[in-house]
Amino acid sequence: MPHILTVTMNPALDIHSTVPRLMPGSKMRCSTPRYDPGGGGINVARTAARLGASSTAVIVSGGHTGRHIESLLATDGVDFRVVRVDEPTRESFNVVEEASGECYRFVMPGPQLHADDELRALRAVDAAATSASDLVVSGSLPPGCSPGFFGAVSRIARDRRCRLVVDTSGAALHWVTGAYLIKPSVRELREFVDEPLPDRPSQVAAARELIRRNIGQVVIVSLGADGALVVTADEDHDVPGVPVDVAGTGVGSGDSMVAATVVALARGWSIVDAVRYGNAAGAAAMLTPGTEPPRPEDVDRLYREASQSLSD
């Protein structure tokens, strides 16, 4: 049976609130906060579990914020493994201005990790990967964690014969080797190749450069509301976005997209259909509060609607 293992080196306790209006220098009264366990791999594991897939999250956790995240994951019924560190897990503060509907995100850097913390995390990933079909590493690295971490995870995936999926950016991406799938945004792809990438041909060429370097076999270039561009060594496909009446903040929608794509691949879907399902999940995440995973009925409905629009 397929089993999805996710890795979150820099989790966050997501705090969501609202204010009537943002005013510099003034005391702004926030609404009652909502708390969610956050961070790329955690969001992927929560969404995968909600979509009916078997999943486990390996997380780095410290202090009272880490314990709060663990409590929330346990309440959700998400299976997880903890790597303890001394410094507290970070918080992420997301505020919606009611007057405009705009969301403002304040993200802390995370705890300072040491070489021993990183080594223990890799051991935890290696142990959990023995029963995994897919290994998803998503999100940023905390201070002190070496970019080479992704190279070590790549070796674990190869040795344990897991399909590796990576959603990260910056210098860390240069260390990834042999992944099945990577998901940079257009901005992240621009930063990687240090080119403006103003149009589709340039974006396809940049994605193929990642494939040429053996970073990944498939590159999904996230285009936000416009959907995604799926690139392999010899094919490229446009997967349109899925429009929704936005109700939530959109925090974690990209992680939901990754989760649903991996779930669909684990079920034997083609890469294009899997990304279409992923886009539906990303859109459905906009319909839930905070960082709550998308509802399966919303994902299925939006996927059907998107598929129908393509056939009309």
Number of strands: 13
State the CATH class.
Alpha Beta
So, the CATH homologous superfamily? Ribokinase
Q: What is the arithmetic mean of pLDDT? A: 94
Task: Give a brief description.
The chain is α/β, with parallel strands linked by helices. It has one domain (about 5-20, about 30-310): Ribokinase (UDP-N-acetylmuramoyl-L-alanine:D-glutamate ligase), CATH 3.40.1190.
Explain the overall architecture:
The protein is of the alpha/beta class. The protein has a single domain (3-20, 32-311), classed as Ribokinase (UDP-N-acetylmuramoyl-L-alanine:D-glutamate ligase, 3-Layer(aba) Sandwich). Helix content is 37%, strand content 25%. It has nine helices and 13 strands. The protein has a nine-stranded mixed β-sheet with strand order 5-4-1-8-9-10-11-12-13, sandwiched between helices. β6 (90-97) and β7 form a beta hairpin. α1 packs across α7, α3 (115-128) packs parallel to α4 (149-159) and α7 packs antiparallel against α8 (271-284). The longest helix has 16 residues, at 296-311. The relative contact order is 0.14. Residues 287-312 are annotated as: Disordered. Residues 294-304 have a biased composition (Basic and acidic residues). It comes from Gordonia paraffinivorans. Keywords: ATP-binding, Kinase, Nucleotide-binding, Transferase. One of its GO terms (molecular function) is kinase activity.
